[in-house]
Specification:
The complex is a heterodimer of chains A (510) and B (127).
Chain A (H helix, E strand, L loop, with lengths): L1 E3 L8 E3 L2 E4 L3 H9 L7 E4 L8 H4 L4 E5 L23 E2 L4 H4 L14 H14 L9 H7 L13 E8 L4 H11 L3 E5 L2 E7 L6 E7 L5 E5 L2 E4 L3 H10 L23 E10 L16 E7 L1 H7 L4 E7 H4 L5 H4 L5 H22 L7 E8 L8 E8 L5 E7 L3 H21 L2 E5 L48 E3 L14 H18 L1
Parallel strand pairs in A: 1-8, 2-11, 3-4, 3-12, 4-8, 5-18, 12-20
Antiparallel strand pairs in A: 6-7, 7-14, 9-10, 10-11, 13-16, 13-19, 14-15, 15-16, 17-18
Helix pairs in contact in A: 1-6, 1-13, 4-13
Chain B lengths: L2 H24 L12 H6 L2 H14 L6 H9 L9 H15 L2 E4 L2 E4 H13 L3
Antiparallel strand pairs in B: 1-2
Helix pairs in contact in B: 3-6, 4-6
The chains are: A alpha/beta (510), B mainly alpha (127).
Chain lengths: 510, 127
């Protein structure tokens, strides 16, 4: 069922069993899981079914620290959320991503990869991926042209990826609106969360829209599913009863903001042509791999988990930095700039792709960011159209992040030397071991994580291992904000898995 | 024989014997030319780049800035069979990578042996 909240009588009270705030990847995944249950699910979406600039403006904010994309442009504020323009890259986190590593401050989840495995399998269905199998040997049988580099498997392994083309808005719009027990309200922006007197239970949330309407939503359970930045913002902005914001008794909400550093970091020059489809990515492909460092070698070298992807050098050398190209506040214009930049690079590559450069690749890092309390989301004095304080993001990296990237390429360079396949050349920003600075055009993956991190200790995390906000019995967070560490893979598959796990938990409490 | 004459004669004889050995070790005309050609890098770089990398290495390692020194370092443990030199050097390059005898020059992660080949190339090619 679909209701446009702009058309409701002002000050309406909406009631249900559970209220999911946000109809993006996490929110829709959860709502789908509740179809045909005896429970009335209220699914709130701030926007409509299409892009709306007025709504998108609500994502406007300020950034400091390491240069970042315009905040308004990094997410999509309508039904389906950021799957509206995502690239569909999916791979599970590795077991090491969940454990406490003594060389990574604030690492360690209260759950393991094994705890998530059943939910990863279910997430595959929602994202319309292939089988939940990321073994290279499996995919080699499926796709025989995936020829691997002959590198020491004790050091480098092939981390497999699968690719989703699911755009949740189009894919699940009908399913959600036709479901009898799912009540989707569009143009219903949550602006405040109201608790009981002791701040241990949520009573209701306040929703507003640009039509000037204000409504209240009451439910037994509330799930924040607006994305890592917006979830933190809402908790911080709901400060009428708790001065520091909800779930923020220990000043952790908004901290530990993490991104994936995704940057051209080195070059690989092969001595001979090496025909394979294993390391190349194209939209719609079923699977491919990135080169990854084994857990043992990560441990020995005390580095973060990261992977390396390959792009033809003749193309990549002509590609502008994403941080420079994705510079328009309007995500549609930024996306267009991005596509144009790729087209231009392809054209330029045609003119230079002869000789040894035809066997050369740009090595592109994809690496977790070490959890850093100073990398954080806060709220400012300025407010958006609906009266919610705007987001301020301070993105801050650490020495460990840079040392890890450098070491990954040193290890890869060593292995390429042993194998005799080719040679690796570090990009300039990695050459000086004493240089801890970052390039101005350092790219990130548009992945927001960690702002409501998971820990069984309320002094170290915002949510429990079941994604319930510490101290508030009926408030939960769905999504990548709950990540204690960010892993190397893009966050979507894991956030869907985590949301489905939360879904089961809430069902058990009903 | 007088003592002074004896010393002079033996010194001269030693010099007559030693000079050809020195000449063999130091002059470009007598060592195996494959020592100046890093095989894998030659598939990636042009000769100008090989020379440039060699120049940088020489500046960083001034004690190796002579053909004789580099030939000696590169020829260590090489058997006299000429055809085996390339295979031997390639094997040593692999060993360099395995054992961490690696240098980073202009961002390139290189084995010490192959970069010495570059240095020798830069010293022995006409400017």
């Amino acid at each position: 069922m679909h209701i446009d909240a702009r058309n409701l009588e002002n000050n309406s009270v909406i009631q249900g069993d559970i209220c999911i705030i946000g109809a993006g990847t996490a929110g829709i995944s959860m709502a789908l899981d509740w179809i045909d249950t005896p429970y009335k699910v209220i699914l709130l979406e701030g926007g409509g079914f299409e892009y709306d600039d007025q709504v998108q403006n609500l994502y406007d904010g300020e950034t400091t620290g390491q240069r970042y994309y315009p905040l308004k442009s990094t997410r999509l504020h309508y039904f389906g959320g950021t799957t509206g323009h995502w690239a569909g890259m999916c791979s599970p986190f590795d077991p090491i991503d969940f454990i406490k590593r003594d060389w990574v401050p604030n690492s360690g989840w209260p759950i393991s990869r094994k705890d998530l495995d059943p939910f990863y399998a279910r997430a595959h269905e929602k994202l319309q991926l292939g089988p939940y199998n990321y073994e290279f040997t499996y995919w080699k049988k499926e796709l025989p042209n995936l020829i691997p580099f002959s590198l020491d498997e004790k050091v480098i392994w092939n981390k497999m990826w699968q690719y989703s083309v699911a755009r949740f808005g189009k894919l699940y719009g009908d399913t959600i609106t036709k479901a009898k027990n799912i009540h989707l309200y569009t143009y219903a922006n949550v602006v405040d969360i109201i608790t009981n007197g002791t701040i241990t239970d949520i009573k209701e949330v306040v929703v507003k829209n640009h039509a000037g309407k204000t409504h209240k939503v009451r439910a037994k359970h509330f799930i924040l599913a607006c994305g890592a930045i917006q979830n933190a913002r809402l908790l911080l902005a709901s400060n009428s009863q708790a001065a520091q914001g909800l779930g923020n008794d220990n000043d952790i909400v908004g901290r530990y903001f993490m991104e994936h550093i995704e940057h051209a970091s080195a070059e690989l020059w092969l001595s001979k042509p090496f025909p394979t489809k294993l390391y190349s990515w194209s939209y719609g492909a079923r699977a491919s791999a990135e080169l990854a460092i084994t857990e043992k070698v990560q441990t020995e070298n005390r580095i973060l988990n990261g992977t390396v992807s390959l792009y033809p050098l003749a193309f990549s050398r002509n590609l502008d930095s994403e941080m420079d190209v994705w510079n328009n506040e309007d995500p549609r214009k930024s996306a267009e700039n991005f596509r144009e930049s790729i087209s231009e690079a392809r054209e330029a590559a045609k003119k230079v792709n002869e000789g040894s450069i035809s066997r050369a690749f740009q090595l592109h890092t994809r690496i977790e960011q070490a959890p850093n309390p100073n990398s954080r989301v806060t709220i400012g004095a300025e407010k958006d159209d609906l009266g919610v304080p705007k987001t301020r993001l301070n993105w801050e990296l650490t020495r460990l992040d840079k040392r890890s990237i450098r070491k990954i390429y040193q290890l890869l360079g060593q292995q390429m030397g042993i194998s005799g396949l080719g040679r690796v050349r570090l990009r300039e920003f990695l050459r000086d071991e004493n240089d801890n600075s970052w390039p101005e055009d350092l790219n990130a993956g548009w992945h927001h994580m960690g702002t409501t991190r998971m820990s069984d200790n309320p002094k170290r995390g915002v949510v429990t291992s079941n994604c319930q906000v510490h101290g508030i019995s009926n408030l939960y967070v769905a999504g990548s904000g709950c990540y204690a560490t960010s892993g190397a893979p893009n966050p979507t598959l894991t956030l869907v898995a985590l949301s489905l796990r939360l879904s089961d938990y809430v069902k058990d409490k009903m | 024989m007088e003592r002074k004459k004896f010393i002079f004669m033996t010194t001269a004889a030693a010099a007559i014997l030693a000079i050809p050995v020195w000449y063999y070790n130091s002059c470009s005309s007598v060592y195996d030319q494959s020592l100046t050609k890093p095989q894998l890098l030659s598939n990636i770089w042009d000769t100008e780049t090989i020379a440039e990398i060699g120049e940088i290495y020489k500046k960083q390692h001034s004690s190796e800035n002579s053909p004789s020194k580099l030939i000696k370092l590169l020829s260590e443990s090489i058997s006299s069979e000429k055809g085996e030199i390339v295979a031997f050097i390639n094997q040593r390059i692999k060993e360099d990578y395995k054992t961490g005898r690696i240098v980073t020059i202009d961002g390139w992660i290189l084995s010490v042996t192959e970069v010495r080949q570059c240095a020798l190339y830069s010293l022995t090619q006409p400017k």
